[in-house]
Amino acid sequence: MTGNDIDREIDIEQKYVAGLYARVDALREAAAARLVAARRAGDREAVAVWQAEVARLEAVEHGLCFGRLDMHDGRRVYIGRLGLFRDEGGEPLLVDWRVPVARVFYTATATDPHGVRRRRRITTRGRTVIALNDELLDADGAGISGLVGEAALLAAVTTERTGRMQDIVTTLQAEQDRIIRHESNGVLVVEGGPGTGKTAVALHRVAYLLYTRPHLRTRGVLVVGPSRIFLDYIGQVLPGLGENSVVTATIADLWPGVEGSRADPPETAELKGRSIMAERLAAAVRSKVQIPDTPVEIEFEQEVLRLHPDTCGRAVQKARRTGLPHNQARLVFQREIVDVLARRLVEGMEAVVLTDTGEAIDGGSPDGRLGEADLRALAAAGVVLGQDDGGPRTLLDETDRAGLRCSLLADTGVQAALDGLWPPLTPERVVSDLLGEPADGWSAADIPLLDEAATLIGHGNDRATFGHVVVDEAQELSEMAWRMLMRRCPAKSMTIVGDLAQTGNPAGTSSWDRVLLPHVRDRRQLTRLTVNYRTPAEIMAATADLLAAHHPATPPPRSVRSAGETPWRARTTRADLPTVIAGLASTHTDGQLAIITPAIHIGPLAAALSLATPPDLTGKVVLLTPEQAKGLEFDSVLIADPATILTTPLGHNDLYVAMTRATRRLGIVHPGPPPAELSAMRELQP
Ligand SMILES: Nc1ncnc2c1ncn2[C@@H]1O[C@H](COP(=O)(O)OP(=O)(O)OP(=O)(O)O)[C@@H](O)[C@H]1O
């Protein structure tokens, strides 16, 4: 197209796009008016509905329309963030990217055009069309790279990072689209190397599922991420796609009231994460129930009641047969014991009234009437007798017996005896009895144990469950964390994304089957992403020795581009490390820089560079540990002291994570000689 042609086309699209915004404005006005009316009427349900609608319409302001398809049959379809019609039930003006018609926007290629003649990408700033990018799918040679909309894609992946993830709805690739629209109702595992878009795909899948399976709006969708930092990083993606109802959480957030941010030593974390802990906790809870060897004596209203071990054993059995969790089964046990005690008391009283020989003793009368002493005993026990016509009752009726049972239940002596036999438990007590009182608060690895204990004792049965759960950086979850998460998703409908070569948690996984099979058997499907959109080819080449040494069977993802910058390493001394890093950071001018370093250097480096900890992801220079850097990306990355990163059991994976965070440049500063896996990198003098 000539310059004039382009201007003319931009004019045409500008008019069309302006019409779309006018339609959105009209819908917004109508929704705002309905919201006001609902508020006035005090109709809470309607308020929630219209609030969500207003938010949805606000969210699509940026990039409302981003594509156009010209079909061979003459149809023209505009693609955008939501569907718009000229009027109610009228002609479609804009098609939501999630409907089937829009799919070809992401999948059509020159070799398989699906009836598409031209794919046009429309770039807007605010409400103004600023650029168009056309692909003619019937032109020779188009689409050879296998990428859909290559120019727009490369523009997207090379823009400066901001510390906040953006949606990729305008440039989704075919292999990503297939996963987003995957029909699986069970567990879909998405595996792929660094930068292959796993996070992006998982979030777009959420938007797709909410659109195509509306019941999920009421059942709820949960997105689990490795850290709060990460959840902040991805926090804008779903709202940008018009979805505001999704809950995001770390595993620790799912246990409210406990921070769980403390890290255990690796061996302890690994141990606490094993599924055997579930059996140990179950055994610990069972062991709290005591069947005594000798009769238990309970003092009640100046009487001594005796509970025989067999009686206790029968009550325990009956309570256990219900299959209820510990604290609920305790109620059954308690009822059994109190029934026995109440029966004893009643029998005792009636025995006073009528002896074997039929004689009345203790103030009772031969016709079976209760005597004065009996009445006094009952009154002392809080039993209020119903009034017979004119005289005392001869027998305890059901109301009287119920009253007696209440009195027994309220009695501190009886309660103490019951607690001794079947104590009520809290999750904290179960876990600390098993592992010892945590000295400085619960650790991250304790959270799934507390949750397991809560399930065993029936505490917190009202915790939220979700219709679909997305797990990002899923390789980090321990077997115990999987158990916890599976309880949050009764339908076991999940999207799980991760990379086994990036596992940093010693309790994390090295096999999807190992963690998933016990929960979902064959209701799982594995899919793979193969193209790295983040990390340039030069940086991936620098990771080759590391990956080959520790994950020889894992193919590195294919980088979509080269950055033209060779990663480097530079030697220094331990003492000079902060000065060298500070010097490099101070001369950095181009885009966002992340300094990734083991926890021991965070304090000194934060002081030397006046940087915030925990990090502010939107800062020009960001200081983090490899663990905190998980899932994030930056224009440039500087790794300080790789050898110390490698000293932890899965340090090689942490180093791989750190090295693959950059979209452009990577530098590594190592005190002393370089780790063998990095020795082939170009060496610089800092
Ligand atoms: N189709 C696409 N169009 C534009 N950008 C894309 C596309 N796919 C991925 N990206 C970008 O590539 C980068 C990496 O994506 P993402 O973080 O989802 O990868 P990941 O597989 O989760 O990475 P990691 O495992 O390393 O955390 C992001 O900036 C994302 O926006």
TrEMBL record:
ATP binds at G192, G193, P194, G195, T196, G197, K198, T199. Residues 171-536 form the UvrD-like helicase ATP-binding domain. One of its GO terms (molecular function) is helicase activity. PROSITE patterns: UVRD_HELICASE_ATP_BIND. This is DNA helicase IV. Keywords: ATP-binding, Helicase, Hydrolase, Nucleotide-binding. The lineage of its organism: Bacteria, Bacillati, Actinomycetota, Actinomycetes, Pseudonocardiales. It comes from the Bacteria. It comes from Lentzea atacamensis.
